[in-house]
Amino acid sequence: MGDFSIVDLYIKDIEQQGSRLAILSASDPLLRRFGQADFISLAAGEELVIQREQADEVWAILSGESTLQLEDMREVSPSRGRRDQITLSGSTPRLVLVPFGVRLTVDGGPAAFLRLTTHEDDAVDGDLIQVP
Known about the structure:
Shape: globular
Structural class: mainly beta
Number of helices: 0
Distance between the termini: 29 Å
Order of helices and strands: EEEEEEEEEE
Helix content: under 10%
Number of strands: 10
Largest sheet: 8 strands, antiparallel
């Protein structure tokens, strides 16, 4: 969904089935392994920054509104230095795959997210994780 300048960046609508949001299933080719799951509540005006050396991350907005600023920091990426911006709203839930090496800044709010990663936080030296 959408055209992005960052290679491997992916966004998908989340399927709502009654009161259930089907966020991610085994048939989605997004995470090759499971490392961690977090519920993140972002207050109005709050910002968080993440850049992972090895871990891919899936962010799914559950409620509220927020903006994701993304910058490709990968040394060998054909899209190194490129930026994308994605505005998310809980009224039309979507998920975003953030590839490892892409710096993610989340701001706006209030908003609630489900965050899934392929590696636990602090598993690799040099990871930048400023989550409240």
